[in-house]
Design goal:
Dna Topoisomerase Vi A Subunit, Chain: A, domain 2, two-stranded antiparallel ribbon, homodimer, 7 helices, DNA repair (chains A, B), binds zinc ion, 4-stranded parallel sheet, 199 residues
Chain lengths: 199, 199
């Protein structure tokens, strides 16, 4: 037994969504058909508009349908700070911290085994952006993974001697966790990076 | 900070999918935009086609774009058996068991508090379907919930004395579980419905 062809096509298409397997896709397809066809049509329209209309900000390379995204076009932000991240979701995460400087969004991280060198992830554009600006500090906020570290090191080396501070986000124990659940590497970083209390 | 308008619209639209909250919708939207725009366009197309093209089988009332679904039009199935379920996903579940009779798909279950009486869930059409057929047995496979039980009872009473067997799927302990994790009501049903072993 199987679903009718149109339903089967919809189930297959839903499986391209991250985290959606066969069972979830079935439930999604049938629930839309049974309970919310107008919502399904709205989603269809939103997908088509976004897939065709969203490009990249010319300045920070985050996803945006405007030539300049709303972060780059905001004149109240701090032009002395540039935060370099691996992707658009990271911009969102850093914004939540209250950071109000500028951003540059790489296309992921260096990954020589996959053939992804500096050009593939946008490092030449990053260097151009930095030349064109007047940044006092470049914050390297790539992911705390082996690849993210290597990418941060590569960028730091490319910028050495250009007169701006190069900083890396701190590694340490996450807030609210229990020490015994923290992995050894993280704990070692947290110890090495210990700071004086009471000022 | 926020995403650009088109991305925001896409995130909002994705949240109509069952089980998809704000964070999941963000990840879905950005992943499609960053990595699979052609997949996103295929999903857009599949949604539009299905929402507009899928109707209901005239005979069993399951979702189908044909007047007769592939289960109803299959002449090799057993015309003596009719299995009554609450929705199209249940048809799929029952098919997995090897059942090869006919189906009738209600629109959910009786729910007087929500104003859903026999007409709202398609019981008149079920009775017509039964009149038009020559069923020896009607298997009531509504959900093992209070509402599903009430719906099965209502249908059984409506069909009493019409000469066909009326059966209800068995309640009991699910296969592969541990007895201590089974709730008391289920275990009581399993005890009451105990059957002789060794033939
Ligand atoms: Zn920008
Ligand atoms: Zn049918």
């Amino acid at each position: 037994m199987s679903f009718s062809p149109l339903i089967r096509q919809l189930i297959d298409a839903l499986r391209i969504l991250p985290g959606v397997g066969q069972k979830t896709a079935q439930r999604m397809a049938l629930q839309l058909l049974e309970r919310d066809r107008s919502g399904g049509l709205r989603l269809s329209q939103a997908l088509a508009t976004a897939m065709q209309g969203v490009g990249y900000c010319q300045q920070c390379r985050t996803l945006s349908e405007e030539a300049l995204c709303n972060l780059c076009s905001d004149t109240r932000r701090d032009d002395n700070l540039l935060c370099v991240v691996e992707g658009p979701l990271d911009v969102y995460a850093v914004e939540q911290t209250g950071y109000r400087g500028r951003y540059f969004v790489l296309k992921g991280h260096l990954s020589p085994l996959d053939g992804l060198g500096p050009e593939a992830i946008g490092i030449p554009e990053l260097l151009q952006r930095i030349e064109a600006g007047q940044f006092a500090e470049i914050i390297l906020a790539t992911n705390p993974t082996v690849e993210g570290e290597a990418t941060a090191h590569y960028i730091a080396q490319s910028l050495q001697g250009k007169g701006m501070a190069l900083t890396r986000i701190a590694h340490g124990v996450p807030l609210g966790g229990e020490l015994e659940l923290v992995d050894g590497g993280t704990l070692a970083h947290a110890l090495a990076g210990r700071r004086p209390m009471l000022g």
